[in-house]
Every structure is written in structure tokens, then in C-alpha cells.
Design brief:
The chain has about 270 residues and is α/β, with parallel strands linked by helices.
Length: about 270
């Protein structure tokens, strides 16, 4: 389920602003993508029949050559507090999508005996494992964050991220279902998997309020966390659909419903569930 095309752009660094190389998030075609929009991006369906692609004006869908059932993969991106969970819950409950969260997948590797975790212990030391065999996330954070530790983070990324995307690819390839893949740090492996990419947006003041209410953060901590992440403009550069989640959940659900009906037409996953 990999996209096709010659890409000259750099993918996004894996740790938000601390790892961003300054290059565009776009994965460009030779035809001259400027970084302001996504370039051509081919992708065949799981049955090998269809072809979908991104263009300078957005996402187009080519009619399939037969009536074979298609598998849809939607990528969901956006900053903390933007309300990605509302979007994912809607896709799961109303449209039957299987949800994959890359952060949760990565955390599932952090247990004694897992090959990824064993490599991390070789790199970072045995003290990142607690007595019960699980990862000591605070110990890991101390080794990864701080002045002069970029090279360590890159090594960790090189261990964890390929394993995460391999897991995602296997899940999608082994199940006859539609998937929504959520990630905070989109890269080429992510865009290659997706038929559509949805960027979830909310005004900063709303995001701060949500983080204070749902996570108990102080206002200062909430603002600092938002500022430490990728900016909304970076997410929107690779998005094919933008969801303004500043308002109520009901408004967001309606926006998704309209998009599903207008874009997918007869291939509406909600219809497929009936």
C-alpha cells in the first residue's frame, strides 16, 4: 500500500520543533512542488485496481476499474488539544474505521523481551526498565531531552519509528477494513499509506482550555506544550481536508459527515456498514 513518486523534499523531524530540519513537510514531485501544497502522490488500492493521487489543487479520486471492495486509509494529524480524539471516535463509531495511534503502538513495544525495547536498552542502558519489566518513561525522557542530546534522539527514532510503521503496514495489509491512522509527527511512511490526510485545527485559546480541563495542566504548561509542537501551517501543508474543531463536537461530526458524503459518493464507509 505504498504511494509512488519521486520525492525530493525532506520529511519532518520526529520531535516537533526540536527535530525539524526547516524543510517543508511536502514530499515533492519533479514537476515542481514549492512546499505550499502537496505534489503528485500515487497510490494503488489493496486490490491493485484503483489509483488515487494528490494534486496542487487537492485530492482527486479516480474511478476503479471494477466493483471490487476498496480499503480506505485516512491519516489524522494535528496538535495537542486540537481534538483529534473527537474525529477518531466519529470515524470509529459512525463509519466503522479501525483506529491506529502511532504513539500507543510505540509504547506497546516498551516491555522486556520486545526486540525494540531490547535495542533501546542496549543504547540507553538497563536502567530504563523497571522491576516489573516495563519501561521507565521518566528515565527515558531524561536520557533523550536536554542540551546536546539530539544525536541520541535520532538513534532512538531510528529504532522505534521503522518498527511502528512496519506494524501499521502489517495491520492494514492483514485486515479487510478501513483504517484511520493518527500521528503527531507525519513523515513519508505515513503519507505513503494514506488515501486522505485530515488536519484537525482548533484555536489556541480553546486548546489551552481543553488541556487545563482534561489533563490538569496549568495555563503556562499548556501553552508551552502547544508551542513545542509542529505549527498548524505545517500540518495543513500535507492535508487534503481541514477540520476546524474550535466549536462543538456536534459541529465537527456534521463537518465530517458532509465531507464523507460529498467526497466519497457511493463509496461512503457508512453505506458499506449497512
Amino acid at each position: 500500500m505504498h504511494g509512488r513518486g519521486n520525492r525530493t523534499g525532506q520529511s519532518l523531524g520526529y520531535h516537533g520543533k526540536t527535530g525539524h530540519s526547516g524543510q517543508s513537510l511536502g514530499y515533492h514531485e519533479k514537476s515542481g512542488h514549492s512546499g505550499l501544497s502537496i505534489g503528485y502522490h500515487g497510490k494503488t488500492g489493496h486490490d491493485g485496481q484503483g489509483l488515487r493521487w494528490f494534486t496542487e489543487t487537492g485530492f482527486r479520486k479516480e474511478a476503479l476499474q471494477n466493483e471490487a471492495k476498496r480499503q480506505m486509509v485516512i491519516g489524522v494529524i494535528g496538535g495537542v488539544g486540537a481534538g483529534k480524539s473527537t474525529v477518531l471516535d466519529t470515524l470509529e463509531k459512525d463509519y466503522g474505521f479501525v483506529i491506529l495511534k502511532t504513539d500507543d503502538i510505540a509504547k506497546s513495544f516498551y516491555v522486556d523481551g520486545n526486540s525494540v525495547f531490547e535495542k533501546l536498552k542496549e543504547l540507553l542502558g538497563e536502567d530504563i526498565q523497571k522491576e516489573d519489566g516495563t519501561a521507565d518513561l521518566k528515565a527515558i525522557a531524561k536520557k533523550l531531552y536536554g542540551s546536546g542530546k539530539d544525536h541520541i534522539r535520532k538513534k532512538v527514532d531510528g529504532i522505534v519509528h521503522p518498527a511502528v510503521w512496519e506494524y501499521v503496514r502489517k495491520e492494514i495489509g492483514s485486515r479487510d477494513a478501513d483504517f484511520a491512522v493518527e500521528t503527531a509527527l507525519p513523515n513519508e511512511a505515513f503519507t505513503d499509506l494514506c488515501d486522505e490526510i485530515w488536519a484537525v485545527y482548533a484555536e489556541r485559546s480553546v486548546r489551552v482550555k481543553r488541556l487545563m480541563e482534561t489533563r490538569g495542566y496549568t495555563e503556562e504548561k499548556a501553552r508551552d506544550m502547544i508551542l513545542s509542537q509542529i505549527g498548524d501551517d505545517e500540518y495543513e501543508k500535507i492535508a487534503t481536508f481541514r477540520i476546524d474543531n474550535t466549536g462543538s463536537p456536534e459541529e465537527t461530526v456534521k463537518m465530517i459527515g458532509n465531507h464523507m458524503r460529498d467526497f466519497f459518493g457511493e463509496y461512503n464507509p457508512a453505506v458499506q456498514m449497512l
